[in-house]
Amino acid sequence: IIYDMNFRFGVCCAALLFVTDSYIEFDKSLIYGQTDFDDKPAVYLGLYCDNGCRIYVSVPDSYNDMAKHIILQDTNNGVTKETNLLAVSQREGADSTKGFYTVDKGNTDVIFQNMNAHFATAPILIWVVRVDAPNIETAQVYDAHYTYRSPNGVVTVMNAAPYVLSTDTTGPMKVRVITAGYDTLDSSDNCIDVLRQDDSSSYRDIRIWIRNPLVTLSFDREAFPDTQISMLATPDSVNNLDLANPAFVTSPGYIGCDTKTPKPRTKNFRSSLYNSLPDYDLKGKSQYLIDLSSELDVDSSHAVNITMRK
User: Fold this and answer.
1) In terms of domain of life, where is this protein from (predicted)?
2) What is the mean pLDDT of residues 252-277?
3) Are 72 and 112 in contact (CB under 8 A)?
4) Scanning 68, 99, 139, 256, which has the fewest C-beta atoms within 10 Å of its C-beta?
5) Average pLDDT score over residue span 185-204
């Protein structure tokens, strides 16, 4: 929905397709999730990281024990190193950014070994980024677990559980938002801007219910170096949205980017914590002229219904 204050309110929905895996491939990265490990002894990356990778892991607190029993095996020059996904998820980078596991150049295989009983799994997010990915050295990455940060430029927030993302700024700013990682900005992945504010004079802060594994915000810090930005991410839900502020709504796990593989497949991240399609109630104190803008890939069983009330 695009309305009359130069803000975009996007409605983005993907079909809920039930397939045996949920991995998502971008030009320079991969996302693995819960269903990739369900009833499977291992997930293999092969030579994907032969030139080097960063591996980010996010695990909701309730599932730490499961993550502890998925082992990351990294083989390079005949030597195999091991760690577990819980340990990787708890790493911290500089300035409390999210830490990562480094796969060095020359790697011959990365294996995620599922050691849980009966190969059980639970909500988890693994993001594998090649070292030649755009923005890898400058972007900030955070986990959406009571995150309160001052982002600088490009920032990616990740989690396998729903959360609320909000910003608080002290002055004018320009921002664009995509539901993918920092590596997909202005890339051949052609990710849709689900939210964009280009008019700095009418900039409004954001408060959005996120049910997407990755969300990247790109702030124009060069144009507005004196504007202070605070960003808060908390495990929460909100489906009452104020039309006076910019936001977007999506179906659970929506990824608005091109498909990389020749065989068409909907890019839709699957998590048991994304187990319902909510009703969004969009309200405003004033009347608005609304232009509906959406990306839909749905069938009759998953219809999108829009009701206008006075």
Assistant:
1) Eukaryota
2) 74
3) yes
4) 68
5) 88
Confidence at 17, pLDDT banded by 50, 70, 90: very low
Q: Find, among 171, 159, 246, the residue nearest to 211 by Cα.
A: 159
Closest alpha carbon to 248 in 200, 191, 286 = 191
- For the chain, give every residue range classified as CATH 2.60.120: 29-132
Q: What angle do CA 28, 33, 37 make, to 5 degrees?
A: 120
DSSP string for 205-232 = --EEEE-SSEEEEEE-TTT-TT--EEEE
pTM over 0.85: yes
Span 249-265, average pLDDT: 74
Q: What digits encode the pLDDT tens for the residues 81-108?
A: 999 999 999 999 888 899 999 999 999 9
Residue 131 is encoded by which pair of tokens? 């070292």
The first and second tokens of residue 76, run together, are 């390079």
DSSP assignment of 269-303: ---TTS---PPPEEE-SS----B--EE----GGG-
Are 253 and 180 spatial neighbours (Cβ–Cβ below 8 Å)?
Answer: no
* Higher-scoring residue by pLDDT: 87, 265: 87
192 vs 10: CA distance, rounded Å: 10
Write the CA distances from 307 to 241, 242, 301, 310, integer angstroms: 15, 16, 18, 10
Short-list 286, 309, 283, CA closest to 9: 283
Residue 112 burial class via C-beta count within 10 angstroms: exposed 0-12, middle 13-18, buried 19 and up? buried
